[in-house]
Amino acid sequence: MKLRVRPEEAGLRLDIFLARRLESLTRSRIQSLNRAGGVRVNGRSEKAGYTVRDGDGIDIDLEATADAMSPALEPAPLPLHVLYEDDDLAVIEKPAGLTVHPGAGARVPTLVHGLLYRFKELSRPTGAPDRPGIVHRLDKWTSGLIIVARNDRTHARLSKAFEERRVRKVYLALVHGRLPKPAGEVTLNIGRHASIRTRMAAAPGKGRVAHTAWKVIAEFAGFSLLEVRIKTGRTHQIRVHLAAIGHPVAGDSVYGATSHRRFRQTYGALVEPERHLLHAAELEFDHPTTGVPLRFSSPLPPDFSGLVERLRAPAKSQ
Q: Is it the case that residue 107 has pLDDT exceeding 80?
């Protein structure tokens, strides 16, 4: 892979720069890759603490090290809904409640366990032995479309497409309240919460640049249905941004705790436990091998669509 340092990234440590650009790799794995000579800055090997400069060209050899897949990753039969597959990739509809890959506190089986059962070949990205096939992620309780890489070449090309923002993603979100205008954007930076390290927070002047555009699709009593497009892929980005402007995603107990309590009292029996109503509805990208444009859409799952219909016609639900 080839990366170019942007002006806003100048001054970062090399390992931090790589961790931000290559979100599928852990910091320790990036350092291991660098020690093995798999990272070169302007043609030279540099230490992890090297300060990157605007315009630096960074070459990454993903074959420089090889990590064995975790022995805990045993294939498990899961009812995966595969919308598309070929020798290079697959597009899956992930249900709410299914974690994408193993991690701290994640129960098994995960989507990865099901992928290992469903497909004979998956990519094995360097530095991410517990994430075969995974190019991008969705939160556990977010439903919708996710791309899976079936070989390392495809993984590298898709990762670069995400990094260069050439993958178009559209989400649907049910949020509390009515927005003040038909459409808008949120450009607040996102970083780790100052005191709760498992959460993210809007952090003006700190954290990482994040951009979320929203458009009102429908309005109900106390709620709005939004179409959301993101140009960046920060952790919990949509949930953090919508909560920051006073319209948290319905069902989100983390970033909309006060509204969430009222929501669960009224509508809790209609949706999955702890389900926040956010759905990855559309994906559009060029096939990494053939260049053919691909576009996929996913309808709202029953619990989400059922609640929307109840809000549309409250009288009929009495």
A: no
